[in-house]
Design brief:
The protein has about 200 residues and is of the alpha/beta class. It contains seven helices and eight strands, in the order βββααβαβαβαββαα. Helix 5 crosses helix 6. The longest helix is centred in the first third of the chain and has 12 residues. It is globular and about 45 Å long. About 40% of the residues are buried.
Length: about 200
């Protein structure tokens, strides 16, 4: 996927449409279809700077590229401002009726507006601490991440850092187990993978 909303609001590439209840937020909708079993993915960039147009969404762009390289289906890419309510509302909207993975990028550090974990905690049904722990172990700087992982109904959510390198490292730490985890959210009879 090459189309996304840039800091200047460019929507070239794919068709875009507003997210329900977030008419100022645009979402890329892919027309491509993937083989059955492909993980459906939505990316949420959490950044005041991206929303204000003062920062380019680099982490969202590299995550979109990595998702496509995994041959997963990117069905939406959007952004919201930092803040507990902003993140919680965006995640509820994105997860409504969705079976797949939502990757957040940004807002996982120690800054006063870094509240993505709190917004995520407000809406998840269950935590998935093993995924968050694995993501933190990828790099010594991972110890500074407060990101969490969890589920809303049939949606898995993982929080990744806002840095381009950090979000990819975190995703790659769990990319091998995500398809199984997502399938289990809909069908508990999915065979357990062998450890080798």
């Amino acid at each position: 996927m090459t189309g996304f909303v840039t800091s200047g609001g460019d929507t070239s590439g794919l068709p875009f449409q507003p997210v329900e209840a977030h008419t100022d937020t645009l979402v890329a909708m892919s027309d491509e279809t993937r083989p059955p079993g492909s993980v459906q993915v939505k990316i949420l960039t959490v950044s005041d700077g991206v929303i204000e147009g003062t920062r380019e969404d680099r982490s969202g762009a590299v995550l979109a590229d990595r998702v496509e390289a995994e041959d997963w289906t990117l069905v939406a890419r959007t952004a919201c401002a930092d803040g507990v309510n902003e993140v919680a509302n965006a995640l509820k909207d994105l997860a409504s009726g969705f079976h797949g993975l939502i990757i957040t990028t940004g807002g996982t550090g120690f800054g006063p507006r870094d509240l993505t974990p709190e917004g995520t905690s407000a809406v998840i049904d269950r935590e998935a601490p093993g995924l968050a722990e694995a993501m933190r172990l990828t790099n010594p700087l991972g110890r500074l991440s407060r990101g969490i992982a969890g589920t809303i109904s049939t949606t898995l959510i993982v929080n990744t850092p806002g840095s381009s390198a950090g979000c990819i490292e975190c995703l790659e730490a769990v990319v091998d187990v995500v398809p199984h985890a997502v399938r289990l959210l809909n069908d508990n009879t999915d065979p357990h993978p062998s450890a080798g």
